[in-house]
Amino acid sequence: MGKGLAISALISADEAVFDWLNGLVGKVPVFDRFMRLVVDDWFVLTCLSLSMIIIWFGARSLSQRERNQRAVWTAAWGVGISCLWFHLFRINDIFDRARPLQEGAETLISYMRTDQSFPSEAAAVGFAFATAIWIGNRRAGLALGFLAFLWAFSRVYCGVHYPSDVVAGALIGIFTSFLMYFIWRILKFAPNSFIKLMQWIHLA
Amino acid sequence: MASAFGDQFLQYLPLVLFSALGVLQIAAARAELRGLTFFKKPLYCYVFGAIAIVGAFVWFYATGDRNAEPLVRTVGEVKVFFGETESFATFMGGAIGALVATLLVSSVVNAGISGSTDKGDPRGLDALKEMTFFQAITRSLGKGVSHFSTYIRGRSRI
Predict the structure, then answer these.
(1) Which residue of B has its CA nearest to A160?
(2) B128, B111, B114: which is closest to B27 by C-alpha?
(3) Scanning A33, A89, A155, B3, which has the fewest C-beta atoms within 10 Å of its C-beta?
(4) Taking CB atoms and an 8 Å cutoff, what residues of chain A touch B95?
(5) Which residue of B19, B30, B140 is in closest CB contact with A58?
C-alpha cells in the first residue's frame, strides 16, 4: 500500500513538472522554434556524430589524441549497446507508459510518437555519447553533455516525454558507456588493434 | 513509398557529406595536419569549415519539415522508421565519402609539400603534418615491401 502511494506520488510529481514545462509553450515563440529544431531526430544526433570526427582527428598532442580515439571507440559501443536495449531487448515494452499527448497533455510541438514513453531512447543515446567522451576528454564531454541535456529537455518541453522518461534514459546511457569503458579496459587488445590498424593507414 | 525513402536518403546524405567535410577541415587545421587541409592558412580552413557546416544545415532545414512524422515501412511484422538503421547507414556513407574526398583533394592540392622526415619517422596522423595522405601511404608501403624483402632474403640464407 505504502509502495503504491509512493509510486503514485512520484508519477503525480512527474506529471506536474511536465505540465509546468509544457505549459510554457507559446509564451516565447522564438524559444519554441529553437526547441522545435532541437527536438527533431536529426539536429542533435547529427551534431553529436559529427563531433566524433573532430574529436578523433583534432587533438594537438599524441597523448590526447590516443585518449580521444579510445573515447570515440567507447562512445560507438556505448551508443550501439544503448540502442540494443531498446530495439533488441525492448525495455520500452516493460513499462507500459503512454506518451504525454496520448494522455491528454497540453501541447505537442513535434510529431506524435506511438511507441511507449518510458524510458527515452534519445536521452540514452545522447548521454551515452557524452559520458564516453567525458571519460577521455573532460571539456569535450561537458560540451556534449550540454547538447544531450538540451535534447532531453526539448523532449519534455515539446510534449514528447515526461521528465522521468528522459532521466531514466540518461541513466541508461551513462551506465552503458561506463560499462563499455570498463569492458574495453579489460579487453584492451580490441581497441588497441583497431587504433594500430588506423595508425598504419595514417587515419589515427 | 520506395521513392519517398530515397528522397529522405538523398536529403540527409548531402547534409552529412558537406558538414563532415567542414568538420574535417576544422579538425585538420586545429591538429596542424597540413597534409589534410585544403588551404595553407588555418584561418581559411576554419572559415571553409564553418561555411560548409552552417550551409549544409541551413539547406537541410530549408528544404523540408524535419519535425514531420518519419516514413514507415513494414519489414515482416516490424515497423521500421527512416531515422535509425537507415540514418546510421546514411551517416556512415556520408562521413566516409567526406573523408575520401578530403584525402583526394588534399593530396592533389598539397602535392608540393616537401614530405621531409627531419623529425624521424612520424607514425599515424603525425605523418600528415608534413606530407599528404598519398605520400604517407606510399612511404609506408615502400617500407613494408623493403622489410618484407629483407625478411625473405634472411629466410633464404637459412
Answers:
(1) B67
(2) B128
(3) B3
(4) 49, 53
(5) B30
- Whether B131 and chain A come into contact, CB under 8 Å, resolves to no
C-alpha closest to that of A81 among A40, A127, A39, A47: A127
- For the whole model, what pTM was predicted? 0.90
How close, in Å, is residue B131 to chain A by CA atoms?
11
The pLDDT profile of chain A, 204 residues, written as one tens digit per residue, is 677 888 899 999 999 999 999 999 999 999 999 999 999 889 999 999 999 999 999 999 999 999 999 999 999 999 999 999 998 899 988 988 888 876 665 666 777 777 889 999 999 999 999 999 999 999 999 999 999 999 999 999 999 999 999 999 999 999 999 999 999 999 999 999 999 999 999 999
ipTM over 0.85: yes
Which chain A residues touch B32 with a CB distance below 8 Å? 60
The alpha-carbon gap from A82 to the nearest alpha carbon of chain B, in Å, equals 13
